[in-house]
Design brief:
By secondary structure, the chain is mainly beta. The protein has 2 helices and 28 strands. An 8-stranded antiparallel β-sheet has the order 9-10-11-19-13-14-15-16, with no helix packed on it. A 6-stranded antiparallel β-sheet has the order 20-28-22-23-24-25.
Amino acid sequence: MAEPTIPNGEEQFNTVTYSGNGSSPRSITGVEHQPDLIWIKDRVTNATNVLVDSSRGAGSLLYSNSTVAAVTGATQVSSFNTDGFTLGATTYVNENSSSNTYVAWNWKINGGTTVANSVGAIASTVQANQTAGFSIFEYTGSGGAASIGHGLSSAPEAIWIKDKGNSTNWRCWHTGFGNITTYQVLNSDDGYRSASMWGSPTSSAIIVGGTGYEVNESGNNYIAYCWHSVDGFSKFGKFVGNNSADGTFVYLGFKPALVIVKGYTIGSSWVMMDNKRDLFNAGSELYLQANSDAAEAGSIAVDFLSNGMKFRDNATGLNGAYTYVYYAWAEHPFVGDGISPVTAR
């Protein structure tokens, strides 16, 4: 069951854009909360997608478009602040190169405070925001199928797992798959793959397979990101494209702030669109790709509406005659006691 509607979604998730200036330390503000997961992408240069979270610490970097292990001792992001974060290095194109422009997507969890979780067969260290339906947890693999506590109050609908110490794929599960024998790879544009690496998640734990699936090798250390839908704030689902210029409408129950779309029955990029890089429905949405270091492009047509999104062309990566899964977070809640609907752009 989804959690109650969040009155101000921007206090839980927010997007900021900024221009690089090559100086440090440099504070990035305007996030409206202390972020616990920061995802940064250079918009104009081919550069990796950088993920930093407060569970691992600011000095540990992961890259959504790469198999590489976590880079530790890094100085690109030096702190998580009450209204943003500090960039601590001057020479990295990924975060603050002079004259480049950047986007940072920011999620709030629990201010970096973690707790031990012994619900599952494998102990985990969890940081959870039950209100927003998002948790981060770390664990050490056992080598055999097992449950792991995630800290949320409902079963996750999206799970991303990465081996922190080894060069391995990101393994992803999504409720839109409709089964537990399917996975996708965040650092790849492949459609779905099949393996027995999951069990059905519960309100207290996820279930992972044993050796050979890159999610539970004995003695390896992992990070997991888990989400579930929250009415008026976030939604994780699937849709079937109609391969038409009068494209599919996807009801979300809110105006989206960030949408990630991935082809399920077709290989396609993890397309990321937001409300800060592209302020108007102008017929060609600016997008980035979670699985690629490519710079920003703007050749797809989709409208962000007050209650969902409407595709305006038959782009294969978004609205071909295929099934797609999506991840969406709200700009402002659309429903809820005393909350007025927002308008389209």
